[in-house]
TrEMBL record:
Protein name per Swiss-Prot or TrEMBL: Molybdopterin molybdenumtransferase
Family according to the record: Belongs to the MoeA family.
Cofactors (names): Mg(2+)
Functional description taken from the UniProt entry: Catalyzes the insertion of molybdate into adenylated molybdopterin with the concomitant release of AMP.
Amino acid sequence: MISVIEAKNMIRANATALTPVTVPLQQAAGLILAADVFAVADIPAFDQSAMDGYALSFAGFELHKTLAIHGEVPAGAPDLSLLQPNQAMRIFTGAPVPTGADTVVMQEKVQVNNGQLNILDDQLITGSNVRLKGSEIKAGELVLSKGKKLTPAAVGFLATTGVAEVLVFPTPVMSIIVTGNELQQPGKTLLHGQVYECNSFQLRAALQGLQIEEVPLFEAKDDPQVVKDTLQYALDNSDVVLLTGGVSVGNYDFVPEAAAACGVTTLFHKLKQRPGKPLYVGRKGNKWVFGLPGNPSSVLTCFYEYVVTALEQLMQVSPVLKTIQVPLSKPYSKNATLTFFLKGYYDGQTVVPLDSQESYRLRSFAMANCLLCLPEEKMEFSEGDLVEVHILPE
């Protein structure tokens, strides 16, 4: 068995970014830029009105005080005629400022009498209410850097510069294989000896939080050939395969054997931790196989602590789990020299280990907002001790 730190370092050392792909901007939200993006034009591409009002030459206004209104400029207007110093032109937000004008006065701060404009704004200065050409960004300037997450605002910014598609690190293609003869689908009647299959539900939900959708599900009975054939098919069509169950040392635990038969190289099998001690992780080229233990709390713990570690590297995203040091709300004693991942609740000041920590129980996990990481070498923890806490995604 290896330690938690060794396991995570091994995953990080072996996981490399997926090959970047070009996608339409509409499909890029949440992904990470794989290359710098530069502006191909000045934005705005022309001097632009920031208000509904009247365009004018400030020097002409200073000279004439009252200006004759000459035409109007709506947004999207084409070529414009020259505006004379003694004239003003009706203009609307986003419209190009006419040649000869350098200032816009708000419509609320004028009086119009018989086609003549009287300006009431005593704060008006040259350039008021005008967005200058290139004031957002100039042609050739860096729009966004490689490694930037494409938030809604970042997507909008790219669109304003005319970008229609971007090079990004994609989400991996993933598959889930649930193993076990005892599994029954929710909604159906349980027969004696059966349990409801929940692992695929929670894994798909967790993956959706990482923008990984449409994850195919395969069921494999406890038969070595079935597990091997199912894994081979999933490997042929996926970047990452998650299996649940079949990784311990029982007579019906066939995942490590099936992985070896499919040409998967084992990185590690079994960890000094609880829950999730039997975790299996292997690689075949750039493809990853995670054999997660069958118990639901073990599955979700191993997903957040190890699968997510690999996905962060593949997708080049920032750490999904925020790690903080928090005072423990009450004493806790470990009964084994293993790293314990405890379901906990962080209230903003202290963290409390929840009841029902057994690996088969999900009730406490459903109430938890964090995992406490208690190191293997320490057995006794007192109230107020600082402990490492991993905040779970909402």
